[in-house]
Amino acid sequence: MSHNLRRAGLIAASGGAYVAAVIIGYNYYSSVLDADDKQKSEGLLQPKSDSELIKSAASSNISYINNPCRSCKFQQIAHAYDEQIDKDEIVMGLKLLRRALIYFHARGSVLEVGAGTGRNIPYFPNSCTSILLTDKSDKMLEKAKDKLQLIPPRDRTRFDTAEVDATDLVATYDDNSFDTIVDTFGLCSFDDPVVVLKELQRICRPNGKILLLEHGRSKRWNSLSTYLDKHAERHAMNWGCVWNRDIDQIVQDAGLQVESRSTWHFGTTYYIVCRPGLTMNQPKKEIVTQIRGSRLLSTVPTPIPIAGEKIHPWTSIWPISLFTMGGHAPQRSPTKPIETEHSS
Asked: Residue 123 gets which letter from DSSP?
């Protein structure tokens, strides 16, 4: 009996700490930078309240969520980006999720899109023979280059960087160019994430993997999604990120074949291992070009069902459990519809 009580107490304490970490993290990310932060991070926009943002958007017909210049924000915050989010990623276990996704699944020639300041650099295993870090923001990539100078020369030779727009890779990379493609917290920043994922499928080899770690709206906790919606405009202004997108719908519209998927932080963080889904006889480059022009999704095959595997409840509590499962997210039974998924 005493053993069960101690166990229950430990679970309750861990759960309380987990909930507190998530709440603190989201409050931090949605908070407006105060005067001290602004002096510390010179160049950030003048903070505004939600009501001011709504009035501003209404009067000018401009939304930070839909504004194509939203991604320019990364140019402004690059010098302070790591300092601003590092502690929060530690508390929420995001570094563990990054490590598990890349360490267990990345192989061969690797392309990372939206690499930013190179937060994934420490996690690429020796099985990755070459790693190309790309981003649209040259200032973010400068931070990544600084980090590369800190790793041993032998490891450094595997890495390269390139200023590339992930929404337009047709002129840059040929079909079937990479074994693994990594995108962590990038779908929230692209103006058209579906087009980006189609591009990634084009340049990924047929037996390769596309690894996604993203944040988006929760399917089970409606109150949390309402919170994300309420503060989406302010968050997009401060961080250049649209944090309330429907990640499942984006992945399905892109035609990706989902190998495994799990959600964390009450369903707002998505850990997804995919395979390319563009398998038609027509060259993939032509398909992507046509879809970018017409946005016709009917030519994209439906994602295949996911192999069945028992869901382990501990995987919804803390990312450390991924390491006991070899980096594999809990998977759905093929008899269940695609929208049924556990979430924390």
From this structure: G
Asked whether the beta carbons of 241 and 188 are under 8 A apart, the reply is yes
As a residue count, the chain comes to 344
Do 210 and 293 meet the contact criterion of CB atoms below 8 Å apart? no
Question: Closest Cα to residue 192, out of 228, 173, 165, 161?
Answer: 165
Report d(CA 224, CA 251) in Å as an integer: 21
Whether the full predicted model's pTM is greater than 0.85, yes or no, is no
Note the pLDDT tens digit of each residue in 177-191: 999 999 999 999 999
Closest Cα to residue 344, out of 243, 269, 281? 269
Which two tokens mark 58?
Answer: 């209404």
Which long-range contacts does 220-226 make (Cβ < 8 Å, 24+ apart)?
Answer: 220/266, 220/267, 220/343, 221/266, 221/267, 221/268, 221/343, 224/266, 224/267, 224/268
Question: How, if at all, do strands 109-112 and 130-135 pair?
Answer: parallel
Compute the Cα dihedral for 195, 197, 200, 202 and give only its sign.
negative
- Distance separating alpha carbons of residues 105 and 309, to the nearest angstrom: 18
Find residue 109's DSSP bridge partners: 130
CA distance 306 to 298: 21
pLDDT tens digits for 24-53? Answer: 444 544 443 433 344 344 444 444 444 444
